[in-house]
Amino acid sequence: MTMDSVAGILIVLSLTAFAIPMAAGQENVSDPGSGVQNLYLFMDWKDLVDLYTRGDASDERLDGYVRLSPDGEDIEQEGVRFRGTSSRELPKKSFNIRFNESQEFLFGSTDMNLKATYTDPTMMRERLSMDLFHDLGQPAPRTRYFDLYINDIYEGLYVHVERVDADLLASNGLNPAGTLVADDFRGHYYLVPEVNRLSVFGYPIDEQDDPEAFLAETMDSRGEPDWGALHDLVAWVYRTPAGPEFEEGFIERFDEENFIDWLAIHYLIGDVDSFGDDYWLYLDTDDPDAGWMVIPWDKDLTFGSHTRRDATVNDYFGYESAIASGWDNDLVTKFLDTPALRERLNTRMTFLMNEVFTEDYYAGQLVLHTETIGDRLDITPGEEVFALHPQNHHGDLGYLAYHTETMLDFVRLRYQFIERAISSGSGEPYTASVEIPAEPEESAVYFTDPGGWVIATFEISEVTEPGTITVAVNETAENPGIDRRWEFDAGDADVSGELTLYYRNDVESCCFPVENWFISDAAVRDDEYSQWDLEMVLEDGVGNRTTLDTYVNPYSNKVSADVSLRGTTWFEVVLPDQEEPERNFTWG
Questions:
Q1: For residue range 467-501, what is the model confidence (pLDDT) as tens digits?
Q2: Do you know which InterPro entries this protein is assigned to (predicted)?
Q3: Taking the CB of the first residue and of the last residue of the chain, which one, N or C, has fewer CB atoms within 10 A?
Q4: Do residues 74 and 217 share a domain?
Q5: CA distance 346 to 337
Q6: How many domains does the structure of the chain reveal?
């Protein structure tokens, strides 16, 4: 949509402002009992045209007022602007609204951060991620869903993420007057272009004539930080090598439990975008015994969602992001390179995966979020809906069950990857062996290769004969859909259940292995090929081939079918010429 077309739409809207009722068919879109709050933003049409047609980077606030219901009381605001960095370029805009007085619906804050979460087809990643920190008693922003109406037109579901400031500190039992700073080094690269760093941690701060003034210029902050304390921390990270000396200094300077939980959660949810400017550092400078704490921020790129081909708007799937630092952050790098600290992190991640943030935990959370916002995610554009924005998210409408299943698949597969990273295995890539006992303790069996990639899963329904099953994935001479062939050698074993095969489908990426087995490099479908059409074909030891009744979730790169594994069996995933099948969803 061009600036001229946006301006034209806004001019039309100005002629009908305050006269358009709630969108037809959406009378219950903001049911007070649903956990979603109405928010009505009213702006003069000229200001609205200015907001949507000026440069996205402008932070000038424009006038307006807010109501919590169509006929509710006017709430005066200091002004509204777009928010975010790269997200400002997306067609559904995120907003920052600053009010003249603190608001109860914002947890007592004056600032509202309405995140569009356009890149997330579930619109759950931000809330679910922040809740993990809260569940561990760690400080993190609170979140709330809002339905946003602009001049009475429904413009989408949003997530308000609490501003990291003195109010957040106080609500977490921390000193609101403490030091609160964020690493914004990459935003000030022009000050030291020859260094070319994305984080202040690793920069030789003592080479500056006035280190504290330099930090004040290159860091975001709230209140009146103790720049001397931050200078000491940055200098210590730079001069201290990984190892016992770093461990000793880390324990002296940090709240160890907080820092390890912060790292652990980031690795569990695969947030590789978090070690640059997506966190805040806090220190209670009134308490000489206090240690630095870390407060998370910006959790939309989690659970496999991240950049492909320089864009975050995509349906590609990946869970193999490394347990590493990134963003040139030497604080995290040296922590991971210090064996004793890395061991404590590994122990904590193992505990959280097995005892706290289990598959059942995530499944329950996804059900609750679906009950709260699920109907909203299928709202289609119309005359009285989405005049300014295309829709709530970038994905295909009507596929929420598949998208939430993909989040659960991410957890299952990510945990396998982390366990293999903690306890490395040996062997060839794309090979795995699993022993099936007569009475398995768990019904789900994972065939995970030495690098942590899950070749297949098997949901056991019956064990006729126990034994060891080995699987190997090999290239095929032709590409019938997926150019691989899975060979299962069950030996003396005889088991039945649901077999799920995983395939690779990835392109240029910041964080995941770039490998594609699908006949096209499309994330789900293109004009010629659709992964929805994939079918699993079984070939037995005498060459008989059977096309199986196949369940497909291309968002997870998987196909499933009921099989029996005995002797040697081969499987291919083919793309026959057929119409797109009906999508009768069942949890896979």
A1: 999 999 999 988 999 999 999 999 999 999 999 99
A2: Spore_coat_CotH_CotH2/3/7 (IPR014867)
A3: N
A4: no
A5: 13
A6: 3
